[in-house]
Amino acid sequence: MVECGPIVNSAPATTHFVPSLTRMTATTPWPHALAALIAIGALLAPHAAAMSEPVPGRLTGDTLTAAFVGKTYRGVYQDGVSWRETYLVDGEVDYQDDVNAARGEWFVREDLLCTFYDGDLVGGCFVVMRRSENCFDFYAVDLETNVPAAGWGAVRGAFGWTARGGRSDLLRTCPEGLVS
Questions:
Q1: Where do you find CATH 2.40.128.640 in the chain?
Q2: 53, 74, 83, 141: which has the fewest Cβ within 10 Å?
Q3: 61-167: CATH class
Q4: 172, 136 in Cβ contact below 8 A?
Q5: For residues 63, 163, 180 and 105, what is the CA-based torsion angle, rounded to 10 degrees?
Q6: With b meaning 16 or more CB within 10 Å and e meaning fewer, what string describes 17-52?
Q7: What's the rounded Cα separation, in Å, for the pair 134 and 157?
């Protein structure tokens, strides 16, 4: 017999019971095992779909790489500190803000723009959103989950960004006062 365990939904007072896979054995009747897998899949499918849905304006893959390779961007962080970063063709990055300067490496991994620096600056990986012709929002992600620290709702709503900027060789099109 397949034992069930509670899974509490995010909505208050809603509990779903699904078979516990840890209790299944080789002697578990296959129809029960199949039913257990289908039940689990049905519960997880909406969450997986929400994460895999494309987010309008998100740069991914080759488009993300092409937007940065060989280009210099300028912008601001949420706290108002200005920054400049050049993404060299050879994978090196040249960074400067109001206080620090560093070199390091940049790359695109799993649809994220990643920058890591030599010395004391750490760097990280970012979801990049094109908000207008030359306005990009950068959302720092948790490196274990690749989920933006601000959450996908903030990304979709265009708030909670880590940094905002645009290519330095083009007229910036971000809202006034938010980009240096």
A1: 61-167
A2: 53
A3: mainly beta
A4: no
A5: -60
A6: ebbeeeebeeebeeeebeebeebeeeeeeeeeeeee
A7: 18
